[in-house]
Amino acid sequence: MIMATYSLNINGTSHEVDVAPGTSLLWVLREHLGLTGTKYGCGIAQCGTCTIHVDGNPVRACILQVDTMAKGQQIKTIEGLSEKGDHPVQQAWITAQAPQCGYCQSGQIMQAAALLETNPNPTREEIKSYMNGVLCRCGTYLRILKAIEMAKEQTSKTT
Amino acid sequence: MKNTSTKTISPMGRRQFLKSSGGVALFITASGLLPNILSCTDSKGVERQLTKHDVTAWVRITEDGQITIYNPAAEMGQGSMTSLPLVFAEEMDADWSKVHVEFSPQEADIYGSPGWQPGTKLMFTVGSRTTNSYYSVMRKAGAQARYVLLHSAAAHWQVPLTELSTGPSEVIHEKSDKKIGYGALVAYLAMPETLPDFSETGLKDPKDFRLIGSQIPRTEIPEKVDGSALFAMDLRLPDMVFGVLERGALHGATPTLTNEEDILAMEGVLKVVSFDYAIGVVANTLEAALSAKKALAIQWGDAQAKGFNSQEIYPTYAKMASAPEKGKTVNELGDVDRAWRTAAKTYEADFKNDYVYHAQMEPLNAIVQVAQDGQSAEVWVGSQQGPDTKLGIPGLLGIPHEAVNVHLQYLGGGFGRRSMNDFVLECGSLAQAMSPQPVKLVWTREDDVTYGCFRPLTLQRLKVSTDAQGTLTGFSHCVVGDGGNLVASGARNDHYAIPNQWVEWREASHGVRLKHWRSVGHGPNKFAIEAMLDEVAHDQGVDPIALRRKLMVNATRALATLEKVAEISDWNAPLPEGRAKGVAFVEHGSLGTGVCEISVDRTSGTIKVHRFWIALDAGVVIQPDNVKAQMEGGVIMGISSVLKEQITVVDGQVQQRNYNDYQLLRMQEVPDSIETVILPSAEHPEGVGETATPMVAGAITNAFLRLTGKRLRHLPFTPERVLAVLNS
């Protein structure tokens, strides 16, 4: 197995990593770069816990190989969503007291932020459909819904 | 809170913990008799005190008025990081806006709450016992801290202590119109000769509570929304290496590795470690460890579970339930045999439940570092802790209890799975082999599912007798399954006035790994009990609420939850076509009655839960919003397990691997609302984490019976099973 150097654009900064080709972007983010806000849940894009943005689209980091992500794409993780944890979605999450164990919440928040980017005024059914790929075992779904609806109102007020 | 990582991951013993605390700490000795007030900047003074006394620090105050309170319980989403410190702050009269919370060291004799045997102490976040068992501990310690502050102010002002009172983080002397903040008082802290016990008197009157019972946001939520909250999975230590294990889908099977040389030759692989039931690999990166795991060529031996087929076992269980020999008695009241003989009518039914898996979102993991000389170890783990707070590592390494230091992290879900130490011990073995390098052990999701420890499969035979007026006279419940209390808990009916009752457990054994799963036996047992009651009500043409009202004649608090939920769910209101409501009662420390409203798609067999209502009596409630969150989460986990979740075993092999074939409830399947009403109470707090989940199966099957006239008696209610019942 030969190591290779990859240059990744993450949260507006260029990062170089030496890893084997084919390494999951999730392990690169978490174990090589210490961006541990993005979580490992299943490794097969079934739980959405590792959701990040690539060029603004929500994707599951666990099934992305590092070699395909070093072509200038803008990668955004929870650490880069806002400067001080105060993105409207994050603020709404706190107001709604959404998290319980918290493990899935980075993925939930990244998925929700992407939703409001593409559809600033989603219906409840649209929210449910868009969020369906991110699992929460603690069962915080109703508070997540509430938080997204609050963030939506907040976003529409400020724009 | 972003910069906690260095502190969290640096090895820190209790002494270092106290030394590095900064400011002034109020240390209360383990005996509870004498407080020691120490300036933490005077490290020699601290050291002297520590050698003299076994001290505990519940709180640290600095001159600027900042207060740190230590939480002794695991935080797995249930809110202990807020609720326990809040109780302490209430009695201390701390200004909550100045309070910061950290985990306490893992030392049960200091930070434990009363254990299961008198005189013992325990740090074990299980059985919904945290608030219940720590409420008095935290109140007393908080009151003692306040007393030290009062004493210090009295000495400083030269006034009698009895003339002093406190407001949020300040001591007040009304006579002279003087006030001093807790921070300013740090310079004058003085130690009283004796410290009141506060066990019975001297605590706040609950009507004076300003924190308990109010809307207080959870302390750890901000770091859970910006990605900075650290789970054990997230820690990275210098020189850390990565361990994985390949365990068999046939639990307990012994592995023989046939390509060890090839594995050791793989890039990054450092070591192969054999276990009785697994092969472990340590490598310098996680991806290298995972590649090696995939490449392992293992021949698996046989184990007890070989030949066991979970879905074919029920006829055997039914035969066991019919056998003349009784099982182990769980509860006996009156004489059910006489009830059967004198009955006007009897009812009998079998209820079944398949295995379910915990599915906590953070797969099991731990980091262990064993010192070069093998005589001490550091452990970083998200654990529900245990009877031994060192999680079995001292025994594994043959070193004293105090030579192991456990750094508790947030848990990405527990649900009972993290009350077991199997993964910690695995990591300890790898770390021993790699000493002194720290090893991070990661279970893949596939490992977590296939080598899971499941809620046991059971069959339950229920028999009920009624007299000529339709009153229940006898109730027997025979549980057949593996796992003792895992299957028998929650089978008693202490809140129903049925004069003759009998509960027994008949033991089966299959070699499949089993463990407590949120609400344990209550899940299947409350399902069977509550469904059986509605089958009787249905046959008699009696309203299910009316039937329970009669049964709860002697259980005032339980009855109040029934009446309240009937009210908030508008139980008697007409429903749209195709909808029905069902009710179920559960006691699990707290008392709750739940009502759901469902519909059924008769083509696909899919049940949809539209709304859920709960009325709860949990005694004094520390954080009402958090209790509601527990009800919401409990209901969602209940619906998930009742409608979807199923582990199956074929020829001893667990068939599911990941979330693709072990389906959890998703966003599109949630109810429109879950509404909880908390009944006011001044009684001692009871646990709330496991009261909602076991309501769900009974409420759904009872709604289904009222909607269709058919009975769902086998969990989970998958679309196939629902269709089969509808077409029967």
Automatic annotation (TrEMBL), chain A:
Gene3D superfamilies given in the database record: 3.10.20.30, [2Fe-2S]-binding domain
Keyword hit for Hydrolase: no
The 2Fe-2S ferredoxin-type domain, residue ranges: 4-81
Coiled-coil features, chain-numbered ranges: none
GO MF annotation list: 2 iron, 2 sulfur cluster binding; metal ion binding; oxidoreductase activity
Iron recorded as keyword: yes
InterPro entries, per database record: 2Fe-2S-bd (IPR002888), 2Fe-2S-bd_dom_sf (IPR036884), 2Fe-2S_ferredoxin-like_sf (IPR036010), 2Fe-2S_ferredoxin-type (IPR001041), 2Fe2S_fd_BS (IPR006058), Beta-grasp_dom_sf (IPR012675), Diverse_Oxidoreductases (IPR051452)
Keywords: 2Fe-2S, Iron, Iron-sulfur, Metal-binding, Oxidoreductase
Protein name according to UniProt: Isoquinoline 1-oxidoreductase, alpha subunit
Organism in which the protein naturally occurs: Maribacter orientalis
Automatic annotation (TrEMBL), chain B:
Domain Aldehyde oxidase/xanthine dehydrogenase a/b hammerhead: 226-304
SUPFAM superfamilies per record: CO dehydrogenase molybdoprotein N-domain-like, Molybdenum cofactor-binding domain
Molecular function (Gene Ontology), one example: oxidoreductase activity
InterPro entries linked: Ald_Oxase/Xan_DH_a/b, Ald_Oxase/Xan_DH_a/b_sf, AldOxase/xan_DH_MoCoBD1, AldOxase/xan_DH_MoCoBD2, AldOxase/xan_DH_Mopterin-bd_sf, N-heterocyclic_Hydroxylase, OxRdtase_Mopterin-bd_su_IorB, TAT_signal
Superkingdom in the source lineage: Bacteria
PANTHER family assigned: ALDEHYDE DEHYDROGENASE (PTHR47495), BLL3820 PROTEIN (PTHR47495:SF1)
Name the record gives this protein: Isoquinoline 1-oxidoreductase, beta subunit
Organism encoding this protein: Maribacter orientalis
